[in-house]
Amino acid sequence: MPKAAEPIDQPVQEPVDEAALAAALEERINGVVAHRPLVMVSNRGPVQFTQERNGHFSTKQGSGGLVTAVSTVLQENEAVWIAATMGRGDRARWQRARDNNEAFIPPAESGTNFHLRFVEPDEAAYNKYYNVISNPLLWFLQHYLWDTPRAPDITHEVWDAWRNGYVTVNQQFANEIVAACDNLTDRGEPIVMLQDYHLYLCPGMIRAQRPGTTIQHFIHIPWPDPDYWRLLPVEMRKAICEGMLGNDIVGFQTKSHARSFMYTCEAYVPDVEVDYTTRTIRWNDREIKVTHYPISIDPTAVKRIAYSQEARAYERYLPTHWNEYTILRTDRAEPSKNIIRGFQGFDRFLELHPEFRDRVNFIAVTQPSRMDVEEYRNYLDDISAIVGRINAKYANVETGWQPITLIMGEKYARVLAAMKWYDLLMVNSLMDGMALVAKEGALVNERSGVLLLSEGAGVVEQLGEWALVVSPADVEGHAEAIFQALTMPMAERHRRATAMKREIESHDVTMWFRDQLRDIIEIEDQKTEEA
Ligand code: F6P
Q: Which residues form ligand 1's pocket by a CB distance below 6 Å?
């Protein structure tokens, strides 16, 4: 008979208490939020200053998803926020701070929770950095917007804008960030959190001056595949990738954009090792984590504004725009938003379904954006032209009906007030990092409105299941989706709308931020262990 195997002494394994570990990590995140010096950096700051005639300064909140998200998640931490001066008011306010030998503009004086610090590029350099390289060159590239047989042309002007605009302003930002960090160390080692595509060179420039600093960078817009990056000459695309590899963590809105970034580094940076399973890049003896954090909204704050007195005041006149069926869209006048195809789809819908004429209104709330850039000015003109053509084609002189109303301007309370009423919200971007309007609309809408969503919007990963998803160039598909939405039984509308609300309420912007801090803590622990 074979002898039974001798038992081997095994070290007794203590069961791991996962819940206790997770709770301890959450406590550490709370500690970072409450005490750790954070340096938030973006091109556009949380507020813009205006100097009044009496010399005093007033402020207006900066526009856009980035400012709203970051302002929301950093309520408790007296973080430093570094941004570029946007106009005369910012420059005058920053000059006053320097005259008073202040390193920061204190929170009480900006009406924010931040210690503000400005980077002040000269106007020519800023113009090259913002109006030539960031928008349109990088923006168009990252949203696949170039009509490549014709554009972009990387002329000597573009090279000049790169060298004497983008590189220069990034270096100014980096110097300012390093100075701010040096100023803060009595509160602990600062964490630098960079935002967006204006600052791709900064991480490498900061790393060169402060090798040990924890640097994280979140990109709010898509990241295209390596082939498309070939539109940029080697020097530019290599500098962008290598600049980004100065970070400890690079975050994107979606998994696929994170993957494209890894492919791009593998294609254009010599000697990188990319591990697609652990989502890390090894370069110059450092490890960089590449991941995704889908941005979201603060449901309580959005509802507070949607039900504010200001919003209610708009609700008194907005109904003059409604009809038996109301379609809404609300965006910056921006080529990536695909506004014109949305109107073409609506035109086709009215052609196919004349029974809906007189009964449906399409309201487009449009905010002019980046008007110093020719492509944006032209796009706004194209929007006005197509609206005119469609209105002329279908307008009913007897009833006074015209199918499309264009409302210009940016008033957040008005947008939210309008969102309560739609039957269909159109979010058909060609490409979009996230498209937060889809989340805002689904949250505040009171009529179980349907969401038409493009495959190119990052939000499709979260809400696509309950939306009508279209391919962004498919005009016929837009027309069919409009018909499907306006004829959808109310019970089905309700089922989808309820599921979307639940999803948005359970994945808010705080989670977006805490997930980033969790990864920062892990990376710092890892670095300490390795040291
Ligand atoms: O991520 C894109 C973004 O930075 C958003 O935060 C914002 O909506 C928009 O672009 C603002 O652009 P700009 O600062 O150029 O007006």
A: 44, 64-66, 196, 220-221, 369-370, 433
